[in-house]
Amino acid sequence: MGEVNHAVLGEKAVAPPEDFRRQARIRSMAEYESQYRRALDDPEGFWREQAKLLDWFEVPKAICEWEIPHAKWFVGGKLNVSYNCVDRHIEKRGGKTAILWESEDGRTLPISYRDLHGRVCRFANVLRSLGVSAGDTVAVYLPMIPELAVTLLACARLGAVHSVVFGGFSSVALADRIRDCGAKVLVTADGGYRRGKIVPLKATADHALESCPAVRSVVVVRRTGEPVRWDDGRDLWFHEVDSRAASDCPAAPFDSEHPLYILYTSGTTGKPKGVLHSSAGYLLQCAWSMQMVFDLREDDVYWCTADIGWVTGHSYIVYGPLANGATVVMYEGAPDHPAKDRFWQLVEKHRVTILYTSPTAIRAFMAWGNEWVERHDVTSLRLLGSVGEPINPAAWRWYSEVIGRGRCPIVDTWWQTETGSILVSPLPGATPTKAGSATLPLPGIVPRVVNLKGEPTEPGETGYLVIERPWPSMLRTIYGDDERFRRDYWNRIPGVYFTGDAAQRDGDGYFWVLGRVDDVIKVAGHRLSTMEIESALVSHEAIAEAAVVAKPDEIKGEAVVAFVTLRASATASPELREQIADHVTATIGSIARPAEVRFAQSLPKTRSGKIMRRLLRELAQKGSVTGDVTSLEDLAALEQLARTKGIDES
Ligand code: WT7
After folding, report:
1. Atom 1 of ligand 1, residue of closest alpha carbon
2. What's the fold here for domain 84-92+112-252?
3. How remote is the CA of residue 375 from the centroid of ligand 1, in Å?
4. Mean pLDDT for each consecutive 10-residue tract of the chain (650 residues)?
5. Distance separating alpha carbons of residues 249 and 465, to the nearest angstrom
C-alpha cells in the first residue's frame, strides 16, 4: 500500500460507440450523474421508485432499516421471487423463450416462460411432497442443465432456501457445505458432461452423503443414463416424480427479508462462508442492474457464460434476467468442446446480442488465436461484459476489437458473492471506458478507497475498497455465524463494508480494482482460500507443514503454488508431488489443484513463528531455484537473507 501508480493516472477514457449510445436506456453522463445524485440525496425515495420493477403482494412500508451491520430492505413488503421471475411474464410473453439451453454436444432446448412455469410448479410440488416447506434448505449439486434453474425457482416458490454447490467440488467439500446449511434434501444428477467426458455427480454425492445423515431424500436428474448406485429408501428419479406432480402450485407471499439462498465462498480461514441472501432487495437489485448495466431490451438474446454454481449464475443467469422476462442462453459445457470456436458458433447460432464472460476466458480465446472467431458471424453482439477478476488492458482491447469489432461497449463489472449484484460498472451508453477500470459506481452505491484509518487515499494511491452505505442486495449475514460476518466485513474499518480488495481511484474518480488484500486468491476467477488449501495439504499423511501462495498465470490470472515440508517418514519424489496434488483435488476439487508443489526443508518464518508468505510469493513468482525438481529447497537461506534486509514480516 502507499505507492503511486502512474499508469492508471494516464489512461484516456473512450466514449461509448455513438450507435449504441443513441438507443441506450441511459445516454449521457449527465443522466447518470443526475440519477447518482438523486440516489445519494434521497436513497429511500430512489429505492422506493426502483421497487416498482417488482410485483408485490404487499408493498413495503419502510425502505431500509439499518443498524450496522444488519440491514432490512423493503420492510413489510411481501412478494414471491418465483412469481416475479416466471408467472408475471406469462400474460405478456408466455410463448417467449425464457431459457435457451444448449447441450455440450449441440442440441438446443428452448423453454418458454409458459413451459418454465409448468416445470417450476411441478417441481415445487415434488419438493413439497418431500416435506420441504418455507425456511427449509435444499442442497443442489447439478450440472448446467435446465433442471438447475427450475430447482432454484421451485425452492423460491415455496420459500425454501437453496444452496447450490458447484459441480466441480469434491465429495468432501460437498459434504461440508450440506452439513453446514442443514439441508435435508439434495437435488443432483446421475452425471454431467464436460469436454465429452462424464462427471460422475451421483457417485460423488453418494460418497458425500455418507457423512450427511440428515439428508433423507435425493432427487436425481437423469442426464447421462450411466448406471448409478441407488438407495431405494432415499433416491428418486427427477423425471418420475416430476411426471406425477400436479402442475398448479400457487405462489405464496413471503416477507421481503425471507431468506432466498446460501452460497458458500472462500474466506481467509479454512472454513468456507455461507453467504446468506434474502428475497426482495436481492431480486430487485439484480433486476434493476440488468437494465442499467446490460441495457436489456425485450428482443435481446443474453448469454452469461458462468456456471450457476457461482454467484454470477445466480444473479445473472437466473434471477436478474428472468425477473426482466429476458431470453437467456444457458450452455452446458466447455468453451473448447468440440472445438475452440464453440462460443462463437453458439453466438452465431442463437444470434446472441449480449455476452457476459470472464477475463480468464477472454485470455484463453486470445491465446487460441483469432481464426476461431473469424469462422463465425458474431455481428449480432451489441454489448460485452466482463466479471470475476481484474481484466488486463491487453485482454480488454482484444475483446473490444476482435469480438466487439469496435462497435460494442464493454462493461467491466465489479462485485462479489457478498454484494449480490453489480456495484461498480460503466453504463454502456453513458460512461466513457478505460481498459482495465470498472469505472464508476451505480446509483445508490457509495464506494471509497481508504487507508486503514478510513481516510481517502490520493488519486493513484493504493488503498482498501470499502462501501459506505447499505444496498438492497447486500449479504445479510454469514449463515450461522453473525460474529464472523461482523468481523470480516464491518470491523476492519469501522462504519463501512470492507470488500477485501485493494483499489485505486484515478484523477477522474474511476475505480481500478487491483485484487485481494487477504489470503483469498483467484484462479480462473474462482475464489480460493490459501488456508483452505493448506488444511487440505496437511491432511495428507506425508506432509508436515504447508504454505500456499499465488503466482501470476497468463490465462488464469493466478495459479496455486504449494510449499510443503515432509514428515520424516516421507521422501520427496515426482510421484509424491502428483499424489499431493490429487489429494487437494479430492479434498476440495480440481479448481484448487496446485499448479506446483514444491518440497522444502523448512518454511521461512518470522521470529514469532509466522510463515513469511511474502518471501514465498517472491520465490513462486521467480520460478524454481533448483534444476532438480525433487530436491528439497533450503529456504532457511532465504529467511536469513530477508532478515538481514530487514523484511521480517508475513
Ligand atoms: C472478487 C469477488 C462478482 C461475481 C464473480 C466473482 C474480484 C470481481 C471484478 C472486476 C476486478 C473483480 C474481486 C472481488 N472481482 N469482479 N470486474 N474487476 N476484480 O465473485 O467469487 O465473490 O469474487 O472478485 O477481487 O472481491 P467472487
Report:
1. 416
2. Rossmann fold (3.40.50)
3. 32
4. 55 93 98 98 98 98 98 98 98 98 98 98 98 98 98 99 98 98 98 97 98 98 98 98 97 98 93 97 99 98 98 98 98 97 98 98 98 98 98 97 97 98 98 98 98 96 97 98 97 96 97 94 95 96 96 96 96 96 97 95 87 88 59 70 51
5. 44
